[in-house]
Amino acid sequence: SDLPSNRRDRSLPPLPFRNQISSSTRILFKCTLSNTILDVLSRRVGWEQTTGEEWHFHWATREWMSTSFDRYKFTSRQLVNHFRNDFELTRKDNLVKNYKKMRRALEKNKSKELSKYSFIPASYVLPSEYHIFVEEFKKYPDNTIWIMKPVAGAQGRGIFLFRRLKHIQEWKKKDVTGCDAQPYVVQSYVARPYLIGGKKFDVRIYVLVTSFRPLTAWVHREGFARFSHSRYSTESVEDAFVHLTNVAIAKTAPDYDPEKGLKWSLNRLIRFYESTFSKQRVQDMITDLSNLIVNSLRCVESLIIQDSHCFELYGYDVLFDEDLKPWLLEVNASPSLTASSQDDYRLKYRVLSHMLDILDLEGKREGTEHHVGGFDLLINKGVIVERTRGPDPHNCFVPSVNLRLGEYHESKSK
Ligand code: ADP
């Protein structure tokens, strides 16, 4: 659960626009969660919680989206935190299907864009693609590792790795009897991840989508890397503490120590990369990451039901391999907003506050900003390009993507 109130930081950053909101401004919000989001909403000047049907802002559950969204009569100034069919992006099987559909369309048109769509490891949806998978499986070298993931799973639950087809017999048996067969995604395992201190990690990045048509997305500069509990090795594929980076998994280790720091801030990770690789290599990695985000959204751009009352804060999970190539593992529709430490609480608080600044129910923004708090505008119809100072003295400015991962400094912000 969330931090008890007496452990919360009393010196949280001042709320924005404190002096600019008139005393008569009243923004009504609805929120059934009791974690960081409720704190952010409750502390925002001029905002008031309601349990009624009249609200401006609703931090809704998925259940509300499927039972009530379609029946709800929206007025112009209302926002809700999901798109109606966001599962096209956030369910593991749909992501794979839509990604493959995009690849097929680009292949058919012999489009050069195809090369940009290689950010998800080879994946098959089971049981429907079982036979295709078996054919493909035979083409891979004997010791290839595969990972099985329940399509609607979270926190590492139900995931296992295997090398031989017989290891998925248990799952198949259930499928044949038809009773509690669970749909899975089987995916080629990224067996050579980039390691730090001998451990594997993946990275959580916050992406705010305010519209799918036109595609408008912001990326927050803060995020974190989550490390596995045990040192990496491919000898044993059974050990979840080695192969999975979920905090929920690490917590079950008998020698788990919450203070031992299985998390790094994005800032620390980027500084580490900068001390290990050239500036250009790190910039290339950031460009690859921005392509991954933009193109994953492109895969569902035409499928998502666009509605001006909807926005969504996605949690992207990305794994870097030893060549620093980013691989998309999953997109979360409800990234955890429960804090695991004081630092984690502050980070999530900032991300959510800046999100509200962008959504701007207070009507304070100009609307042309490319940076708001820790968020940078990545795409607004087209990808936003910045001119940054390059290494060549004769050609001072080079174009680069508008993404400054790890560069948020609280003191410099308002
Ligand atoms: P969940 O929704 O249960 O967290 P994920 O897809 O995020 O499922 O996977 C959980 C963990 O498994 C990740 O944090 C990552 O460490 C590992 N993992 C998942 N897919 C792969 C893959 N293809 N290659 C390597 N590791 C993977």
Automatic annotation (TrEMBL):
PROSITE patterns: ATP_GRASP, TTL. GO terms for molecular function: ATP binding; metal ion binding; tubulin binding; tubulin-glutamic acid ligase activity. Keywords: ATP-binding, Ligase, Nucleotide-binding. Residues 118-360 form the ATP-grasp domain. The keyword ATP-binding applies. InterPro entries: ATP-grasp, TTL/TTLL_fam. GO terms for biological process: microtubule cytoskeleton organization; reproductive behavior. One of its GO terms (cellular component) is ciliary basal body. Pfam families: TTL (PF03133). Belongs to the tubulin--tyrosine ligase family. This is Tubulin--tyrosine ligase-like protein 9.
